[in-house]
From TrEMBL:
InterPro entries: Acyl_CoA_acyltransferase, GNAT_dom, Ribosomal_N-acetyltransferase. One of its GO terms (molecular function) is protein N-terminal-serine acetyltransferase activity. The keyword Transferase applies. Residues 19-186 form the N-acetyltransferase domain. This is RimJ/RimL family protein N-acetyltransferase. GO terms for cellular component: cytoplasm. It comes from Nocardioides albus. The keyword Transmembrane helix does not apply.
Amino acid sequence: MTPTEVWPFFGLVIRTPRLELRLPSDDELVRLAHVAADGVHDPGDRPFLTPWAERPPLERARHVLRSAWASRGGWKPGDWSLGLTIFLDTEPIGIVWVSATEFAERREVSTASWLGLPHHRRGYGTEARLGALTLAFDHLGAAYATSEAFPDNAASVGVSTKLGYEPDGISRDVRDGEVVVSHRLRLGRERWELNDRSEIEVSGLEPCLPLFGAA
């Protein structure tokens, strides 16, 4: 059997006008880890609750590998986290995560992402999330998508605003012994339908559907 026959997500591909979103090969995953090692945000910024991107380069690289392995090993239909590497001209530049809990009942996903620092402010984040949400809403039947961002994370909030997310309260968490507040944002199907995704293509999905718990 081929790897795709055993784990059909290797055949799932989302194409946007400039990007390709898919699971990486082992060699590509290592290349993605190098992107993280080179930095995913400006020094002094703290965009993530878990400060993995503030650690030394080798630890950042290892975090990328551990996250990919953990998501595959912990996968359950209905409870999953799909980390799609973002490729630009065959080179990995970041990752977008689509995650769900009790998906068949709740029909809700959450998203998170990062890009290598040289690829910021070029619209790739918006394009990648639009591709990931096309999978969730148009092909898996999601009713809602959620996201969270610190108030000073203008890039993440900007992507959410462009795609139609609306305020959904706050979250309070502890980071380094201090309480930090995040804005919760929610995108419903009615607002999602206003987004143009005519240039988004999703292929290789059908064998994956039972593992998504989308039936």
